[in-house]
Design goal:
Helices cover 38% and strands 18% of the residues. The longest helix is centred in the last third of the chain and has 17 residues. One of its GO terms (molecular function) is glycosyltransferase activity.
C-alpha cells in the first residue's frame, strides 16, 4: 500500500546519488524513492552502470553514469543535461564506501547546482576503513544539511567521530528491503535438500559477522537436532578457504550449503522463503537490512547484542539475543528455538508483527519532512 499522496503545486525535486548499483543500498534506494514518488515528488537516481533494479517497476528516473566509483565521461553530457532540466533542490547521497568519491561529487555538484545536500551512510563506517577515511568523512559530514542513520547506536559515532550536530541527525526505521519483491513472485528456490529445517546466514561474508562462530554452533546443534541444514550465502569480503576447511573438518559437508557469491534478488527471496531461522552472529557492526528482511518474511532471528540489533530484536518476542563471540550461547539459542515448536511459532508471529510497524511510506514521510525543514518549506495537506 502506498503512502498518502499530497497535492503538491511545487513537488520536491530530489536527486539520489549512489555509486552502489547492487545489494542492500540499491534495495534501500529503490524502496524509498518509489515511496517518495508516491508522495508526489520528482525523483531521479544517478548510479553505476548495471543497476540491478532497472527492470523492476519504478516511479523514478534512472541515469547510470558511474563505473567502478568513477564517472563515465561518455555519459557526462547526459548528467549535465539532467542537472539543467531537473534543477534538484535536494541531493541525497547514499552509501559509505570510497569516501573520496563522495567528496569529489559534492565539490562538483556544489558548483553545478543550488541544491542542499543530505546523506544516508547506510554503514556508518566503510568496510575497508583506512586512516584517511575518518578525516575525509568528517569533512563530508560537515557539508551536509542533514544526515539519516539506521540505528540509534550510530548517533555516538556520527557526533563524536564525525562532529555532526545532533540537531542534523535523524534515525529512521529499517523496513523490509525486499518489500518490492512481494509484487513480483519470482523467488528462486535455493539448492537445499527437502525435509530439513534451515538456518540461514545471508549477506556479505566478513570476519566481523561471525560465520565461523555460526558453523561451530551449528555443529553442536546438529547433534541434538539432526533434521537441520545451514545455508550461508552472500558475497565474500574475506578469504573463505578457512570457512570451507572448518565445514569439512567438522564433518558438515552434507549439512551445509556454502555459497560465497553474489545472490540476485530473486535468489535472495528464495532463501528467505525457504529458511526457518535467520542467524546474525556478528562480532560487531552497525545495522543490517538482513534483519528487516527476516522480519518481513516472518522469520524468527537469533542475533548478537551489537549493531543496533537490540534496538529491534526483543528477546523472546521476535527473536533471541545472545552475547557476541559466544558459539555455545548461539548453539543453545538454536537448540531452544528448534526444539520447542510453540516458542518458535510465537517468535515468528512476533517477527511478523514487528515488520508491520514500519513501512517505506512511513520512512518516506519522515524523510520528506527533513527535506522540507532543510529547505524551509511546509507540506500541503493530504488529498
Amino acid at each position: 500500500m502506498h503512502s498518502a499522496h499530497r497535492c503538491w503545486n511545487n513537488p520536491l525535486r530530489i536527486l539520489f546519488l549512489s555509486p552502489t548499483a547492487q545489494a542492500g543500498t540499491a534495495q534501500y534506494n529503490h524502496n524509498l524513492m518509489n515511496a517518495l514518488a508516491d508522495r508526489g515528488h520528482e525523483i531521479t537516481l544517478v548510479t553505476s552502470l548495471g543497476y540491478e533494479l532497472a527492470e523492476f517497476p519504478r516511479r523514478y528516473q534512472l541515469l547510470e553514469v558511474i563505473d567502478r566509483y568513477r564517472l563515465q565521461y561518455s555519459r557526462l553530457a547526459a548528467l549535465l543535461r539532467l542537472l539543467r532540466v531537473l534543477r534538484p533542490e535536494i541531493i541525497h547521497f547514499q552509501g559509505a564506501q570510497r569516501p573520496a568519491t563522495y567528496v569529489v561529487a559534492w565539490i562538483a555538484l556544489r558548483l553545478l547546482t543550488r541544491a542542499r545536500f543530505v546523506y544516508t551512510p547506510q554503514d556508518i563506517l566503510p568496510f575497508s576503513e583506512r586512516s584517511h577515511h575518518t578525516h575525509m568523512l568528517r569533512f563530508f559530514y560537515g557539508r551536509m544539511a542533514h544526515v539519516f542513520l539506521n540505528a540509534q547506536q550510530n548517533l555516538a559515532t556520527a557526533t563524536k567521530l564525525f562532529g555532526v550536530d545532533r540537531a542534523k541527525l535523524t534515525v529512521l526505521p529499517m523496513p523490509d528491503l525486499l518489500a518490492f519483491m512481494r509484487e513480483q513472485d519470482v523467488a528462486v528456490p535455493p539448492p537445499i535438500p527437502d525435509g530439513r529445517r534451515v538456518v540461514l546466514f545471508f549477506g556479505q561474508i566478513q570476519e566481523r559477522k561471525g560465520v565461523d562462530l555460526l558453523i561451530d554452533a551449528f555443529a553442536e546443534t546438529l547433534r541434538q537436532v539432526p533434521d537441520i541444514h545451514l545455508a550461508i550465502a552472500g558475497k565474500a569480503y574475506m578469504n573463505t578457504k578457512p570457512l570451507e576447511a572448518q565445514i569439512e573438518c567438522l564433518g558438515l559437508t552434507e549439512h551445509v550449503s556454502f555459497r560465497p557469491g553474489y545472490a540476485t534478488f530473486a535468489e535472495m527471496a528464495g532463501y528467505f522463503e525457504r529458511c526457518d531461522i535467520v542467524a546474525l552472529p556478528y562480532r560487531y557492526g552497525w545495522n543490517s537490512g538482513v534483519l528487516a528482511s527476516a522480519f518481513g518474511y516472518g522469520k524468527a532471528v537469533i542475533a548478537t547484542r551489537v549493531g543496533g540489533f537490540d534496538e529491534v530484536v526483543v528477546d523472546r518476542y521476535n527473536g533471541l539475543l545472545i552475547p557476541p563471540c559466544d558459539s555455545s550461547a548461539l548453539a543453545q539459542a538454536l537448540i531452544n528455538m528448534l526444539s520447542d515448536g510453540r516458542v518458535y511459532h510465537e517468535l515468528c508471529a512476533g517477527a511478523t508483527e514487528t515488520a508491520g510497524r514500519h513501512s517505506w511510506g512511513q520512512v518516506a514521510e519522515l524523510t520528506e519532512q527533513c527535506y522540507l525543514n532543510v529547505l524551509g518549506r511546509t507540506a500541503p495537506k493530504s488529498a
